[in-house]
User: Which sequence fits this backbone?
């Protein structure tokens, strides 16, 4: 959660707040995005408090160095390939938009979980209430910005969307390997092998709810241009966010 907020969402919101994109100087857009930035920082703070308390309860005094999350690595690789600053800005915007519109049902799953530390469940519930609003804001802001973009920018946004969507389906096996090794979990490699064997490609994919991004694609009239098969969320992720309102 913290990595997604800091590495994906906040950079995208910051670009909008600074008026980088056509239409992002609209007073209502800037106000909504600035409030969202404040919210995101507080979400990070809440999760950090929960993590700190859990570490105290469990006597965890050290943490391993973690690899950068896979979605950010995919974005960084793309940014290194894009020659123009405006293209790189659009990539950051798209990655942030997908991240912000795909997280609510995952938060709902954590909020309903009674097997984890209650503080984590509570904070996920509070986080979810904001994200339910943020997702709707992002959809409308991206639509407004897209209408103000020139044809080259619009084509680039359509090209970037499937790249971001595919990046967000990847499971970060490297992070799990580090966590298992640090916790001295027996049979760690067997666990990883089982995960790889769970899909025909040998690369487990993380399923999210892409209904928000799907709406962006549909309302921008890009359905026929996006090479991505939107999966249905699994049953455990289909709970409505408003049950936590």
Assistant:
């Amino acid at each position: 959660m913290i990595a997604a907020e800091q590495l994906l969402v906040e950079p995208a919101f910051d670009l909008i707040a600074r008026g980088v994109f056509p239409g992002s100087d609209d007073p209502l857009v800037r106000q909504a995005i600035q409030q969202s930035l404040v919210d995101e920082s507080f979400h990070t703070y809440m999760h950090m408090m929960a993590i700190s308390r859990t570490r105290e309860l469990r006597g965890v005094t050290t943490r391993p160095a973690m690899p950068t999350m896979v979605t950010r690595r995919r974005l960084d690789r793309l940014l290194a390939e894009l020659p123009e600053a405006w293209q790189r800005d659009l990539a950051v915007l798209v990655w942030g938009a997908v991240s912000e519109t795909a997280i609510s049902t995952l938060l709902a799953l954590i909020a309903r979980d009674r097997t984890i530390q209650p503080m984590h469940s509570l904070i996920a519930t509070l986080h979810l209430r904001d994200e339910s609003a943020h997702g709707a804001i992002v959809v409308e802001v991206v639509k407004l910005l897209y209408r103000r973009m020139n044809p080259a920018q619009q084509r680039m946004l359509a090209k970037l969307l499937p790249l971001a969507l595919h990046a967000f389906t990847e499971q970060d096996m490297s992070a799990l390997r580090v966590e298992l090794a640090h916790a001295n979990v027996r049979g760690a490699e067997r666990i990883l092998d089982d995960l790889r064997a769970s899909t025909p490609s040998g690369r487990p994919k993380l399923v999210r709810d892409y209904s928000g991004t799907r709406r962006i694609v549909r309302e921008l009239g890009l359905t026929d241009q996006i090479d991505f098969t939107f999966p249905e969320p699994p049953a455990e992720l289909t709970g409505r966010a408003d049950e936590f309102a």
About this structure: The mean pLDDT is 86. The chain has one domain: 2-170+206-229. The CA atoms of residues 71 and 168 lie 6 Å apart.
